[in-house]
Each structure stands twice: as structure tokens, then as C-alpha cells.
Design a protein that fits this description.
The termini are far apart. By secondary structure, the chain is mainly alpha-helical. It folds into two domains: about 80 residues, Alpha-Beta Plaits (2-Layer Sandwich); about 35 residues. It contains four helices and three strands; from the N terminus they run βαββααα. The protein has a three-stranded antiparallel beta sheet with strand order 1-3-2, with helices on one face.
């Protein structure tokens, strides 16, 4: 029985490629489904034989833990070097965009809070 190993929703291309390479390296048979054109399904990496799942899942967990550690280290380094994207950095670079987004958030909050009051009066 086939088993889904990794849902590809919001998975970067490099991570999906590394997972494919990991499965090939450990000789675990898999196939990939593509996302649907309407966004209903995000696609995924499936194991051809569900019996491989107990072997593949710990490999995937170890890979994702290592990737998370690497990403945290890269982010911490970017923060130390001042390369990390921050709210105030974006405000300095794109003030109109940031202020426009803040105005949109405030407008949505006001509508959310005011419309029930206006309709229930």
C-alpha cells in the first residue's frame, strides 16, 4: 500500500530535491504527485511500498531536524551581521508598502469590529 511521506505544500524546491536524493541514497522507492492546477492538492512524495515507511520516516525526521538547525544558525548569523530582514529594516527600505499594509490591517480590524455593531443596531 502506498503511503504519503511528505506533503509538498509550502516546501521549498531545494528541500524537496534533498528529500528525493535522501530516498534515492537509501534505495527507498518513491514517486511524486504534482500539485493540482486549482490549488486543491499541493502534491507530495509518496512511498511505493508502505512497508518502507518505518525506515523512511526516521530518515526524514533526522534530515528535517538537521535542516532546521542549519536554518536557525544561518538566521542567527544574518542577525549578527545585520543582513536579516526585520520590520524596521523593511520600514526603512519600503516605507509606503509597509505603511499601506499597516493601514490595510487596521481597516480590516475596524470593519471586523464595526460591522457587527452596525448590523445589530
Amino acid at each position: 500500500m502506498r503511503k504519503l511521506l511528505l506533503n509538498l505544500r509550502n516546501v521549498p524546491d531545494d528541500e524537496a530535491a534533498e528529500v528525493r536524493e535522501l530516498l534515492k541514497r537509501h534505495e527507498i522507492a518513491f514517486y511524486e504527485t504534482q500539485p493540482s492546477p486549482w490549488g486543491v492538492s499541493a502534491g507530495g512524495i509518496w512511498l511505493q511500498d508502505g512497508a518502507d515507511f518505518p525506515r523512511a520516516k526516521p530518515l526524514l525526521d533526522a534530515y528535517q531536524a538537521e535542516r532546521a538547525t542549519r536554518a536557525r544558525a544561518e538566521h542567527a548569523e544574518a542577525l549578527r551581521e545585520g543582513r536579516a530582514e526585520t520590520f524596521f529594516g523593511q520600514l526603512r527600505q519600503k516605507p509606503l508598502y509597509v505603511l499601506g499594509m499597516l493601514a490595510a490591517v487596521v481597516a480590516i480590524l475596524l470593519l471586523t469590529l464595526a460591522l457587527p455593531y452596525l448590523f445589530l443596531r
